[in-house]
Amino acid sequence: MSTELCSSCGSCGFPMRSAEDHAGGDPQCGYCSTCADPSGTLRPYEDVVEANADYFVREQGIALTAAREMARALLDSMPAWKARP
Amino acid sequence: MIALPAVASQRSRQREATRRQLLEAGLRMVATEGFAGTSTAAIAQATGKAHGTVFLHFRTRDALVAEIVAEIGRSMSDRLAALETATPTLREVIDAHLTALAEHEVLYARVLAEASTLPPAARARLFALQSAIASRLRAAHARARTAGEVRALDAVVAANLWIALTNHYLMNRDLFAPGESVVAKCGADLAAQWLALVST
Ligand SMILES: [Zn+2]
């Protein structure tokens, strides 16, 4: 069903369409520019939760508390955070 | 010793093939029975696998459901990306959205109808997908606003209006378009009406 047209971020699942979507503008990086710093290193979990929550608030106007919960649920199901204690 | 890596990669291919089979069976079952009517036992049976095999690939039923929703989301995102130009107009964004919706209508309508009872990770996937649509609409709206083509509506509300409109028709597709595609039947009109609402 899925055709690998674009890769999705290993941390948040965001589909990365252009080089700028990847951290540091590097298409080889498996994380998006929201989840990783310009060197491609994944940011700390709480920072990534906050960045993803901000994105939900900005794009859909939902409450910040609900956005944080949503972001946690999303991240916890992703490969990058599976091993998180 | 030399054969070992080959065996390992064959195993990993088999493993991926089984995971894919389970996921595809899950998608087919959700299309006909909905999430509530889709059990891990039935998915195992449909693929001829032991029930326990499902849990070798997905830790829990919730994890499998989240992966099914993620798969629908990925497929729709890929479609949107394929249709997209660098700076699409509002018309181009909603047309691409309608095309992606039409191709995933049955499954996406199931996700919407059952959203409130889906596990949090699955619901978050749906929300992430909607945010991606909203984000494209917001950017196109900003460009149209600069060009004086749209009224001074809040861009988030304008995007939510479009998402709410399409969701309503999709969730009630059996009423708006019994036995056919609601996107094919009503999509073009909804797009025209929404554009008329937001345009100057
Ligand atoms: Zn990310």
List keywords for this structure.
A: mainly alpha; 2 helices; 34% helix; disordered N terminus; B: 200 residues; Arc Repressor Mutant, subunit A; Tetracycline Repressor, domain 2; 2 domains; elongated; binds zinc ion
Description:
The complex is a heterodimer of chains A (85) and B (200). Chain A is mainly α and 85 residues long. Chain A is 34% helix and 5% strand. Chain A contains 2 helices and 2 strands. Chain A has helices spanning 45-60, 64-76, and strands spanning 7-8, 15-16. A two-stranded antiparallel ribbon of chain A has the order 1-2. In chain A, α1 (45-60) crosses α2 (64-76). Chain B has 2 domains: 1-58, Arc Repressor Mutant, subunit A, CATH 1.10.10; 61-198, Tetracycline Repressor, domain 2 (Orthogonal Bundle), CATH 1.10.357. Helices cover 78% and strands 0% of the residues of chain B. Chain B contains 10 helices and no strands. In chain B, α1 packs across α4 (61-83). The longest helix of chain B has 30 residues, at 4-33. Chain B is elongated and about 65 Å long. Chain A binds chain B through residues 1-6, 8, 12-15, 17, 55-56, 58-61, 69-71, 73-74, 76-77, and chain B through 24, 27, 63, 66, 70-71, 73-75, 77-78, 81-82, 84, 119-121, 123-125, 127-128, 130-132, 134-135, 138, 156-157, 159-160. The site of zinc ion has 8 residues of chain A, from loops.
CATH architecture of the largest domain in chain B: Orthogonal Bundle
The SS-based structural class of chain B is mainly alpha
The third-level CATH topology of the largest domain in chain B is Tetracycline Repressor, domain 2
SSE sequence of chain B, one letter per element: HHHHHHHHHH
Would you count the extended β strands of chain B for me? 0
CATH H-level homologous superfamily name of the largest domain in chain B: Tetracycline Repressor, domain 2
The structure class of chain A reads: mainly alpha
Low-confidence stretches of chain B: none
Helical content of chain A, roughly?
25-40%
Q: Give the distance, in angstroms, between the N- and C-terminal Cα atoms of chain A.
A: 33 Å
Q: Tell me the helix content of chain B.
A: over 70%
Q: Reading side by side through the largest sheet of chain A, how are the strands ordered?
A: 1-2
Give the averaged pLDDT of chain A, no decimals.
Answer: 87
Give the number of DSSP strands of chain A: 2
* Radius of gyration of chain B, CA atoms, in whole angstroms: 20 Å
Summarize the biggest pleated sheet of chain A: 2 strands, antiparallel
